[in-house]
Design goal:
Layout: H1 2-8, H2 15-18, E1 38-41, H3 51-66, E2 70-73, H4 87-95, H5 113-121, H6 156-169, E3 172-175, H7 179-191, H8 207-216, E4 221-224, E5 233-235, E6 239-241, H9 245-248, E7 253-255, H10 263-273, E8 278-282, H11 289-299, E9 305-309, E10 312-314, H12 329-334, H13 339-348, H14 362-368, E11 379-381, H15 386-398, H16 401-419, H17 431-441, H18 467-471, H19 477-488, H20 497-509, H21 516-528, H22 536-543, H23 545-557
Parallel strand pairs: 1-2, 8-9, 10-11
Antiparallel strand pairs: 3-4, 4-7, 5-6
Length: 558
């Protein structure tokens, strides 16, 4: 038996090198004021990170930070047949997405002081926490840490060690059943409309029978005996629970014949050795918790506290599916949604807070989170509201000078990508100009990408507008154009939007037989080539006096 288990250990590596034994923890944090809060997010890299996984990670993160604890990322990669290339890296990349402090802006544009002042004084902006934040782990495969390694495939010695202890105590036994026999058992149960379960056949093998079978099958699986009454436990969300797993399930495999553990053994062993104090995981694992508690009991370890989180569902109550391509974080990052907006919406639709409100930042989520307020009801996610959440968070970033500098760089790259060789004048990439556009359009756009949509193409390229097109709006094209040019050539060239609105109204009032709305329509088409868009005065401030003059003169000469 010992020889068999030694084959599962990595040669030349001791179990102590693969994990730090933390010792037993107190049953309750309340009995030990010095106990550290340690939580973990333990996804399987069988797919990229999606919103459901992000929500589980977020609740673990904000719970840890609320109690000055540690948030650990552990990758459960023991099912080697289902691993997706790049998934492990993607999970950690997405958790760290925008989690770094942004660089200080080097350039200052004094001519934009009034716009900056308006943004900073806006009552709708949050000035308490302006930095974009992700949910980066304190310990992870990439970052390392005192309880590593953080890939389960690198911790096989610890699982073999625990399995050996269970075998020696009689709490586990070797199973020699072939995959074919197990499949027949499953088919027979389904044919009889019963729940498939193992019949515990190998549980009663004698030592002589075990020795005889080891001679022909040196790599059996190991099963855990589900003996005795399952202990009751108090879940921090669902309250008191007990599931009599022995009466409805067969003895579960805890170590497969290839030396890799199943979830049940691996999660218990790792949570113990990593000193996990609280397990916050999806409610689908609630039924398995009694099984895990039996494992803790058999190993003589103190279990952590459990809190099972209700599911995150689509707004119609259906389950989020990995087949929905738009639920992966990579999709949201690529289409211009901010991490804070995603964190905001997935907490806004659930529970755990005194009240739901839009626009909360990560520090605010941490401060307001209360695990006792998490209810058993599933959270219904309405992604149609995400643009509005993003608009609020984008406006908050615009109000912070450091973040605005970063947004300027991002918009410059978007303009280059969207228009490229179509740019007639590369001065539109000037940081001062780009910042002015962002400041003027804050609150009106939901994503930075909106500013390179066709509706805003006039900001970056000159529209093709013919004189006949304007003549269809008003016969007084020349008069209107010349008066606007005169307005721009006056002493008040640096006109603000409010002043321009007044001057344009005076200009319209001075024209006989034409309505103010038609004057505005004519100017909008002349400047943008479009029938709809921002106010004309804002367009003029955005483009600047020089560009407005050139566009109007171009129309007059066409």
């Amino acid at each position: 038996m010992a020889v068999f288990l030694k084959r599962l250990l990595h040669p030349g590596r001791s179990p102590a090198a693969l994990g730090r034994l933390m010792g037993r923890r107190e049953a309750s944090l309340g009995t030990d004021p010095g106990a550290a809060v340690r939580v973990r997010f333990a996804p399987s890299p069988t797919g990229f990170l999606h919103l459901g996984g992000l929500r589980t990670a977020l609740y673990n993160y904000i719970f840890a930070k609320k109690h000055q604890g540690s948030f650990i990322l552990r990758l459960e990669d023991t099912d080697q047949t289902r691993l997706v290339p790049g998934a492990a890296e993607n999970i950690e990349d997405m958790l760290e997405w925008a989690g770094q402090l942004l660089p200080t802006c080097q350039n200052r544009y004094d001519d934009l002081s009034s716009l900056r002042e308006n943004a900073q004084n806006s009552k709708t902006l949050s000035t308490t926490c302006a930095l974009i934040t992700g949910v980066p782990p304190d310990e992870s495969p990439r970052r390392g840490g005192p309880a590593g390694p953080y890939l389960q495939s690198q911790r096989l010695a610890l699982y073999a060690q625990a399995a050996e202890a269970l075998l020696k105590s009689g709490a586990a036994y070797l199973c020699f059943c072939s995959p074919q026999r197990l499949e027949l058992l499953k088919k027979e149960a389904l044919r009889n409309r019963q729940t498939p379960r193992y019949d515990n056949r190998c549980r009663s093998l004698s030592q002589a029978q075990v020795a005889q079978k080891l001679a022909t099958d040196p790599k059996p699986a190991i099963r855990f005996r589900l003996d005795g009454e399952a202990p009751a436990f108090q879940d921090l969300v669902y309250g008191w629970n007990r599931h009599e797993v022995a009466s409805v399930e067969g003895d579960p495999v805890i170590l497969k014949s290839d030396g890799f553990p199943t979830y049940h053994l691996a999660s218990v062993v790792d949570d113990h050795h990593m000193g996990i104090s609280h397990v916050l995981r999806g409610s689908e694992w609630l039924v398995s918790t009694s099984k895990h508690l039996l494992l803790y009991q058999a190993l003589g370890w103190q279990p952590p506290h459990f809190a099972h989180l209700p599911l995150l569902l689509n707004k119609d109550g259906s389950k989020l599916s990995k087949r929905q391509g738009d639920i992966f974080l990579e999709h949201f990052a690529a289409t211009g949604f901010l991490p804070d907006a995603l964190l905001d919406i997935i907490t806004n639709c659930g529970s755990g807070f005194a009240e739901n409100q839009m626009g909360r930042t990560l520090p605010e989520l941490i401060a307001q989170f209360d695990l006792s307020r998490v209810t058993c009801h599933s959270a219904l996610l309405d992604l149609e509201k995400l643009p509005e959440f993003n608009r609020l968070h984008l406006r908050r970033l615009v109000g912070d000078e450091t973040q605005r500098c970063q947004l300027v760089g991002q918009l410059q790259a978007l303009v280059e990508e969207a228009f490229g060789n179509q740019l007639q004048d590369r001065e539109v990439l000037d940081p001062a100009y780009v910042e002015r556009i962002i400041l003027l359009r804050q609150g009106h756009i939901c994503r930075l990408q909106d500013l390179v949509s066709p509706a805003y193409s006039y900001l970056w390229t000159r529209p093709a507008v013919g004189r006949a097109q304007l003549g269809a709006i008003s016969e007084k094209v020349d008069i209107i154009a010349k008066r606007v040019l005169g307005l721009l050539e006056g002493p008040g060239t640096n006109l603000t939007q409010d002043v321009l609105n007044g001057e344009l109204k005076k200009l319209s009032d001075g024209l006989e037989g034409i309505k103010h709305s038609n004057v505005m329509k004519l100017l909008r088409v002349a400047l943008s080539g479009q029938q709809q868009g921002p106010p004309v005065a804002e367009m003029m401030v955005s483009l600047g006096p020089k560009e407005v003059r050139e566009r109007i003169q171009k129309v007059l000469c066409s």
